[in-house]
Design a protein that fits this description.
Blueprint: H1 10-23, E1 36-40, H2 52-70, E2 74-78, H3 86-98, H4 108-133
Parallel strand pairs: 1-2
């Protein structure tokens, strides 16, 4: 009989299984003759980390998507982040102000580049958090 470990490391198990699911395309719609079913994730602003409300909302969407798959539907859960919102600009401007900089100190192109840099950092964190939650979104 196999002995169970004394401690359980959920992060290791969850990460391993999530990577397996992604690598095998289990979140991608691939039932051409099935009834299509789609849900679009309301994109969170890339202003920081997700909060408990995001976790609840995404858990409910995940339940609906997995249920649709179990019913044989060609289920697609589209992922995205909102990188163009005023809230994102405000975060970048606050960071600049902390360094004594203003938006008007930069050309439009340079300022927009700063926003894209922030989006890369924050948006990447958000997608990592969504994966960590186990969201079965199509990341392709």
């Amino acid at each position: 009989m196999t002995e169970l470990p004394k401690t359980f490391d959920p992060a290791a198990i969850e990460t391993r299984w999530y990577q397996h699911w992604e690598a095998n395309g289990l979140f991608r719609p691939d039932r051409p003759n099935a009834e299509p079913w789609t849900i679009v994730n309301p994109p969170p602003n890339v202003t920081g980390s997700l909060h408990i409300g995001h976790a609840l909302d995404n858990t409910l969407q995940d339940i609906l998507t997995r249920h649709a798959r179990l019913k044989g539907k060609d289920a697609l859960w589209v992922v995205g982040t909102d990188h163009a919102g005023i809230a994102t600009q405000m975060v970048v401007e606050r960071q600049m102000a902390a360094k004594g900089e203003k938006r008007t100190d930069f050309s439009r192109e340079d300022f927009v580049a700063k926003i894209w840099d922030w989006k890369g950092t924050s948006g990447g964190e958000i997608t990592r958090q969504l994966r960590r939650l186990g969201c079965s979104m199509d990341w392709a």
